[in-house]
Amino acid sequence: MGNGVDGLEESHELPTVPDSIAAARSIVLGLGTGLPQCVRDDAALLVSELMSNTVRHGGDTALLTATLHDGLLRVAVHDDGAGLPAMQERVPDLSTTSGRGLQIVDRVADRWGVELDDGGPGKTVWFQLDAAAAPHAVADGASGATHDVRSDVRSDVPGDETSVPTEEREDRSAWS
User: Fold this and answer.
1) Is residue 90 in some structural domain?
2) Any residues with CB less than 8 A from the CB of 164 and at least 6 apart, and which?
3) Residue 17: CATH number of its domain
4) Whole-angstrom Cα distance, residue 162 to residue 175?
5) pLDDT in tens, 62-85
6) pLDDT for the residue 14
7) Which of 96-110, 126-140, 156-170 reaches the highest mean pLDDT?
8) How far apart are CA 13 and CA 20, in angstroms?
């Protein structure tokens, strides 16, 4: 990637308590300062969603693992909980306080999936972001603020050239 962080591998064991959600976010935001800020921000959002699920449904501890190889950031959260993640088919009612996490992961991550433990109740939920293809920040007029230019907007409309290819979605089709 040319930013000095390729080859990064980190693991952190965290208790499945609400404070660990912020801890996981801090860990991900601290990953390789050479990563584009938008990638670190997206990773922090997504790991918050995965850790929230682990705190609610997992065992006593979670293992957070982050790797960066060939410009691909992969963040995984493992827990020993027996429950499997299930993405809601519809957006929950606006008054509902949960049920949106995997929808957010599905829309923001380049890829994501679930790996079941062999012979045990645990699982690993992971996501991947392509740091090499991250959008560039641009100045926002007179304010000087920056925002991300998302040239990779995805659509699920068949025939739309911006759709996520089916082979990238197959990892999670069983969880829809």
Assistant:
1) yes
2) 154, 156
3) 3.30.565.10
4) 23
5) 999 999 988 899 999 999 988 777
6) 97
7) 96-110
8) 10
* CA neighbor of 42 nearest in space, from 124, 115, 106, 120: 106
DSSP, collapsed to helix, strand or coil, labels residue 107 as helix
Residues in the chain, overall count: 176
Domains in the chain, number = 1
Q: Is residue 137 domain-resident?
A: yes
- Cα 17–Cα 23–Cα 26 angle in degrees, nearest 5: 160
Within-domain flag for 3: no
- Tell whether 2 is covered by a domain: no
Containing domain of residue 21, as a range? 8-175
What's the rounded mean pLDDT across residues 14-37? 90
Enter the pTM of the model.
0.70
- Rounded Cα gap, residues 34 and 158, in angstroms: 36
**171, two tokens:** 């990892």
